[in-house]
User: Which sequence fits this backbone?
């Protein structure tokens, strides 16, 4: 089966995203087909570009240059200096990519990093972040953030909230939904027929029988027990300090963690440059490099394309897996 090309939204034009897209084309042009959604005038001239009018033209164009589904932006792209006049164009590029991925014209959506303040200043961006905007566009109530690499996949049950708020936010319903969405995504998007999920405890030593906190025994353990009766292969709550060495990682397909840093520290330690952000629970595949706009190095030609390359490769692998039947 021939896959549709991957759509790649441009992100913040003043950041490193466009530089990384051009580097990714140079590295991947013989490996897969993708196209940029953005303003061709924002691109540096050291990589050839081919303006296309529809996604289906991207595969044929890849050999000659970076295919660009052209959008007109109102501002210039000055490295390190985000222009709120570009906010509408950035949001439109994401929306176009979402529509193409949902329609099947694109096999996946890969997103370059955005700058939320520029979006808020330029067009009153009303979402906490990129992921929430995508969920809104797809009319999905709940998605989960997965960070994935060749060595580890992690999902935080709670994300961008203060640590003191985690115990209150960590309800059985939140945990149950996070695990269910993760399991479904591992099957439909990663091709894992019977996913194994390890679940971290909240407290040191997973609470040590209540001596270091009761959330593990009163919230996490009963929820996991209930889910096991429903057929989920889940283990835990496990002490987080012993979950991430190589022998432990071999026993599960993804780790669900209780808060942001509990999940992200292990994967960024193991594979800082190649971690990929995957949004699980959308009706299409979405990946993104696991870094921001990096205004301090924008325009200097020194940005490392590893995470962008891995985000495109992972989107491609996930799209291939999605075409396979699952028992």
Assistant:
């Amino acid at each position: 089966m021939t896959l549709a090309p991957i759509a790649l939204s441009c992100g913040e034009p003043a950041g490193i995203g466009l530089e990384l897209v051009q580097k990714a084309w140079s590295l991947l042009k013989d490996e897969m087909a993708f196209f940029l959604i953005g303003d061709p005038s924002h691109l540096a001239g050291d990589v050839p570009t081919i303006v296309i009018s529809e996604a289906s033209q991207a595969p044929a164009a890849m050999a000659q240059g970076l295919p660009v589904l052209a959008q007109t932006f109102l501002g210039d792209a000055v490295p390190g200096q985000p222009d709120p006049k570009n906010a509408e164009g950035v949001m439109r590029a994401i929306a176009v990519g979402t529509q193409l991925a949902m329609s099947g014209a694109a096999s996946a959506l890969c997103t370059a990093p955005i700058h939320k303040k520029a979006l808020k200043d330029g067009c009153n961006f009303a979402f906490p972040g990129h992921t929430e905007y995508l969920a809104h566009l797809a009319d999905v109530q709940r998605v989960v953030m997965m960070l994935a690499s060749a060595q580890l996949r992690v999902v935080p049950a709670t994300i961008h909230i203060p640590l003191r708020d985690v115990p209150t936010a960590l309800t059985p319903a939140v945990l149950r939904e996070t695990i269910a969405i993760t399991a479904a995504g591992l099957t439909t998007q990663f091709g894992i027929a019977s996913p194994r999920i390890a679940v971290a405890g909240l407290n040191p030593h997973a609470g040590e029988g209540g001596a270091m906190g009761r959330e593990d025994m009163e919230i996490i353990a009963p929820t996991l027990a209930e889910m096991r009766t429903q057929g989920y292969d889940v283990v835990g709550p496990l002490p987080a300090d012993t979950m991430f060495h190589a022998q432990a990682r071999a026993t599960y397909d993804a780790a669900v963690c209780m808060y942001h840093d509990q999940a992200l520290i292990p994967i960024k330690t193991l594979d800082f440059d190649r971690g990929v952000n995957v949004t699980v629970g959308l009706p299409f595949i979405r990946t993104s490099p696991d870094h921001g706009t990096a205004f301090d190095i924008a325009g200097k030609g020194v940005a490392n394309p590893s995470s962008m390359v891995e985000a495109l490769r992972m989107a491609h692998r996930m799209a291939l897996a999605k075409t396979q039947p699952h028992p």
